Amino acid sequence: MKTNTDKYLVGANKKIKIKDFDTDYNGHLDKETGKQELAAVKEELIKYQEVLYASNSHAVLVLFQAMDAAGKDGTIAHVMSGLNPQGCQVYSFKAPNAEEYDHDFLWRHYKALPEKGRIGIHNRSHYENVLVCKVHPAYIMNENLPKYPSVDQIDGDFWKLRYESIRNFEKHLTDNGVTILKFFLNVSKEEQKQRFLERIADPAKNWKFSSGDIKERALWDKYMEAYEDALNETSTDYAPWYVIPADKKWYTRLAVSQIIAETLKGLKLEYPVLAQEEVDKLAEYKEQLLSEE
After folding, report:
1. What is the torsional sign of CA 181, 267, 237, 189?
2. Residue 47 three-state SS
C-alpha cells in the first residue's frame, strides 16, 4: 500500500493548524492488515538500507518529536527492527549538560549526525530549543547568551532567529548529502490521558511515568502553539515535517515506515560498480579459491 504522504505533509510556506490533523486516522485499515503491511514495508527498508550503506554517499536523518506517551520509543523500535545495526545510529536527547550549555544550541546535535551510508534517528532533537524552551523560556537563561540577560528579553524576534538558525542548519546538511525527515507524532490529549493511566496501573510500566508528565500536560495548549509555530516556520522542501496520527500505535508505525521507505527509494541509490580492472581480477580470484586443497 502506498502512503498518501500529502495527507501528513506540512507544505513549505503554508500555515497549518494542528487541530486540523486527525489523531485517530487509521488509513481505512484494521489492525491486523496494518501489521501485515508493516512487515512488508520492513522488508523494503532492509533492502534500501543495504544499498544506502553500500553506496556510502548519502546519510538519512530521522527526527521524532511528540508530547509524552505519544509512542516515540515504540515507533523507533518497530520501524528500525530488522535493520543492520551497523547502519543505524539512535540518539535520545535529554536536558543539556554543563558542557553542552557552554556551546551554541545546535552543537550537541551536530555531533550526533549520522555518517554517510547510515540512518540516524533522533528521539527528540534540536527542536526542543523551540518547543519546551518556548513553553519554559527561563531555560534559555542556562545558555548565558550576552544579548539576552533576562527572560523578559526573550521575545518574538528571538524565536524568529532560532527558526532561521534551524532552517540554515538543515539546509547546510541537505546540501551536503543528508536527507532529513521530521515526524511529529500527533497524539490526542484524551489518548495521552489513557496511556498515563495505563502506566500508573501497570507496575511494569510505572518507571515510564513521572510527576513531571502531569505538570507538562497542564501546559498542553501552550505546547500545541509551540509545535504549530515550529512546524510552520521550519517545514521546507528540503527538510519537511510530517504530522503523523498517533492515537493508534500500529498505524503510526506503519505510516512512518512507509514514508521512510518511499524516501529511500526516491534517492535512487545503486550498489557501487567495480572498475573494469577489478572485475577482470574476479575470475582470477575465483580460480585461486577453487584450486585450494
Report:
1. negative
2. helix
CATH number, position 41: 3.40.50.300
If you write DSSP's letter for every residue of 70-136 in order, what string do you get? SSHHHHHHHHHTTS-GGGEEEEE--S--HHHHTS-TTHHHHHTPPPTT-EEEEES-GGGGGTHHHHS
Question: Across residues 33-48, what is the average pLDDT?
Answer: 94
Q: Is the pTM of this model over 0.70?
A: yes
Contact by Cβ (8 Å): 125, 67: no
CA 63 to chain centre: 2
Position 1 scores a pLDDT of 43
101 residue type, one letter: Y
Contact 64, 123 (CB under 8 A): yes
| Residue 10 Rama label (left phi>0; alpha psi -120 to 50; beta) | beta
Q: Name residue 243's amino acid.
A: V
Distance (Å, whole) CA 254 – CA 270:
25
Count of other CB atoms within 10 angstroms of residue 62: 25
Residue 15 is part of which domain span?
5-290
Q: Radius of gyration over alpha carbons of the chain, in Å? A: 22
Predicted confidence (pLDDT) per residue in 240-275, tens digit: 999 999 999 999 999 999 999 999 999 999 998 888
User: What's the angle, vertex CA 49, arms to CA 107 and CA 127, rounded to 5?
Assistant: 30
Whats the size of the chain, residue-wise?
293
Q: Please give the Cα distance from 121 to 203 (Å, whole number).
A: 29
Number of folded domains in the chain?
Answer: 1
Sign of CA dihedral 21, 244, 114, 97: positive
**Cα separation values, 47 from 34, 43, 243, Å:** 20, 7, 26
